[in-house]
Amino acid sequence: MAGKIYSKPIAFSIAATLAVLAGSIAMMAYPMLRAEMHPKVEGLAPLTALELAGRAIYQREGCVNCHTQTVRPLQSEVVRYKGNRAAEPSGRYSLAGEFAYDHPFLWGSKRTGPDLAFEGWLKSAAWHHAHFEDPQAVVPRSNMPAYAFLKAAAVDGDDIGAHMRTLRRLGVPYTDADLAGAAAALQGKTEMDAIVAYMLSLGKAVDRGGKGGLELDLEEKNPLAADTAAIAKGRQLFDAQGCGACHGDEAHGQEGVAPSLVDDEFLGEKGDLPDAAYFGMIKGGSDVKKQLGRPGLADGGMQPFGSELSDEDIWSIVAWLRNQKGHEAAEPPHEEAAEHGNR
Amino acid sequence: MNEYRYDHRTVQGFILSAIFWGVVGIVIGLLISVQMWLPAANFPPYLTFGRLRPVHTNGLAFGLGVGAIFGLSYWIVMRLCKRPLLFPRLARVQLWLFNAGIALAAISLMAGHTQSLEYAELEWPLDVAIVVLWVMFAVNVFGTVLKRREEQMYVSLWYVIATVIAVAVLYLVNNLALPVSLTKSYPVFAGVNSANVQWWYGHNAVGFVFTTPILAMFYYFLPKATGLPIWSHRLSIVAFWSLVFAYLWTGAHHLVYTPLPDWIQTLAIVFTLFLIAPSWGSVVNGYYTVGQDWSKMRSNYLTKFFILGITFYGLQTVQGPTQALRVVSQLIHFTDWVPGHVHMGTMGWVTMVITASVYYVIPKIYGTEIHSVKLANVHFWLVLVGQLLFSITMWITGIRQGWMWKATDAQGKLVYRNFVDTVAGNYPYWQTRTLAGIVFTVGMLFFVYNVLMTIRKGRALERQAAPAAPAASVTAA
């Protein structure tokens, strides 16, 4: 009788073990043997020494407790994380093959802060430095803790070499040169440099940079210049697109994050450029700097908005910025530094 | 006729240790709940949310949960086998190692030593210690069961045995890693595969730490406390085997809409829906058991702990499968809904049953009564109100958050483009959660006080009864 098993502990334990193993084999062990669990996208490269050091810091600080790293194939999520700028439709959300070297995966289970899977395409190094140091100065209502102490800690290059050696034994293709160069690559770097480098590496295995090749005519005039309705709309769009998060609520810029858009400089040099240059930078992002003949900041991280805003929208924003600049010239800037930011 | 001795002191040692780590874990829970709405309450580097959250989860799952499981399982095993533990000294060593392990775990997590795997954060030297602890537990459970003096194994023993086996398999596989140093290792699994292994582990850590051993307590202590036999032995058989079989298939429901292959997600969702049946098998059995005499709810103060506990288990096991559905997952996954769900299980089901079992066991050790039934009732109502306020608040804010993330206008543009809008709107809810946590904590402090006063009373009785025989505390009750 089957009832006998409840007086035979060994037989009972074997039966219980088999019950537990059935699902474990079907759902955990068997999938592991299938190629679909070990995909690799073409552009995938192992993290550099500095990025890997940053990943170890990301783990140490428990960032995974508040940030996810997987953009789900949902329309609202694709739009939020700018996956819609991807060169291939499949790149709009996170792909299994992007994580082949992630020991372990860091997808997380709670999104208290935003997802970071595509972070490498979304923000500049300067933004991250300022944000890690004092998150509320950049995003006023954020609940993120400050990580200013990372600036004071040096990264241990020999240690990261050992990390890379361990990962190589697990199948991550680090070369001898990678291992030998780790210490030198980390010379003089702080933990802050490392975690920012890691942020900028995220999502980079797939091209999500937006459509390049913007044709720019610097002679083109703003069709909406001095149009009051367009100026009001431009102001709205500036707020709605979150431009203030980097450039300040009133476009005065934020030191160390992003420049003022209403002063006499453009891309780090004295002397303003015509409206069409503003139009190009908003539409195409930092890539357009080359066409403007000004290098700007090395870390320039302006995102392209061409896939989200119509040309008319962009001209409206430029009209508002020009109008704003006119006001600035008429009256000196007042105390609103504490008010800037993302709201 | 009972000449053999039960080792009460080890059982009590585990219970007191569990209570100690429980208080630590709950206090840290309060701190991190404040950090959610007050970033200035972070004190980098050691006391930030990112480092403390695993201290909270590990402290309560392994400190309170596993500590109580060790102690109460030993109590159950000894009685159902009608003999003392086969290796009482080993159990004593296990108690000390357990406390040293949890203390080191807390310190190492605050120092940032973590594998970044949820509920498997601890680095490899502590993993080795945990394996040693578990082997000690297994040796004593199996040894005692093999040498038992009662032919039939009661349902609680089945659940204890299943716990020992399943946790061993889960823990060993998910923690496979290659060390870099004493404090850092890289797990052998990568990417999608690593995610699948982790959630096979993560979900079943819930299944075999927060479910099966707690059911063992429920099936043992509910009849003991009420004097009512379990309603259906056959139902408990069906529920046991289907639960133990189905649980292991369901972990991938934590990975809905991730890059994990669809077939694994779908199969996991299907088994998750099936899991309602065995879960409710125990719920029905619990209700019908007390249904033999509902007046026990009034006349026996422990009955309501067990009934409310199994009620939250029942709600939990319907809510969980609902969350696994793709259409629900896309709204509430990654939001505060999930901590709301988890805390209904931990604060409503696990803690209710553990505290009721402790209320039953501690007076029995000393052959006395609980210090105060009135205080136990105050404890009950406070933890009930605290837990409900916590969970309901988190469900509301979770839905709200998920909806704000998804909200788009007619052109397909996001209504709440700035992510921080979806964060800042949570602050009032997160503040309410802290308040709920305080209510719950006060309730738990009533419990701790009541237990300690009972022990004090028991010791005084012992001294009066047998001043010349200090070994009285280990003789059978």
Key structural traits:
heterodimer, A: 343 residues, mainly alpha, Cytochrome Bc1 Complex, Chain D, domain 2, 3 domains, two-stranded antiparallel sheet, 14 helices, elongated, disordered C terminus, B: 477 residues, Cytochrome C Oxidase, Chain A, 17 helices, 73% helix
Tell me what the structure shows:
The complex is a heterodimer of chains A (343) and B (477). Chain A is 42% helix and 1% strand. With 343 residues, chain A is an all-alpha fold. In chain A, a hairpin with a 2-residue loop joins strand 1 and strand 2. The radius of gyration of chain A is 25 Å and the shape is elongated. With 477 residues, chain B is mainly alpha-helical. Chain B has a domain at 1-188: Up-down Bundle (Cytochrome C Oxidase, Chain A). In chain B, strand 1 (177-181) and strand 2 form a beta hairpin. The longest helix of chain B has 39 residues, at 427-465. Mean pLDDT of chain B is 95; it is low at 471-477.
The total count of helices of chain A amounts to 14
CATH topology of the largest domain in chain A: Cytochrome Bc1 Complex, Chain D, domain 2
- Per DSSP E runs of 2 or more residues, the count of β-strands of chain A stands at 2
Tell how many strands the DSSP assignment of chain B holds: 2
Kindly summarize this structure in a few lines.
The complex is a heterodimer of chains A (343) and B (477). Chain A is mainly alpha-helical.
Topology:
The complex is a heterodimer of chains A (343) and B (477).
Chain A: H1 9-32, H2 49-60, H3 75-80, H4 119-122, H5 125-133, H6 135-138, H7 157-169, H8 176-185, H9 191-201, H10 228-240, H11 244-247, E1 265-266, E2 269-270, H12 275-284, H13 289-292, H14 311-330
Antiparallel strand pairs in A: 1-2
Helix pairs in contact in A: 2-7, 2-9, 5-9, 7-8, 10-14, 12-14
Chain B: H1 8-35, H2 49-81, H3 88-110, H4 124-146, H5 155-174, E1 177-181, E2 184-187, H6 191-209, H7 212-226, H8 233-246, H9 262-274, H10 276-291, H11 296-299, H12 303-324, H13 326-332, H14 337-366, H15 373-406, H16 419-424, H17 427-465
Antiparallel strand pairs in B: 1-2
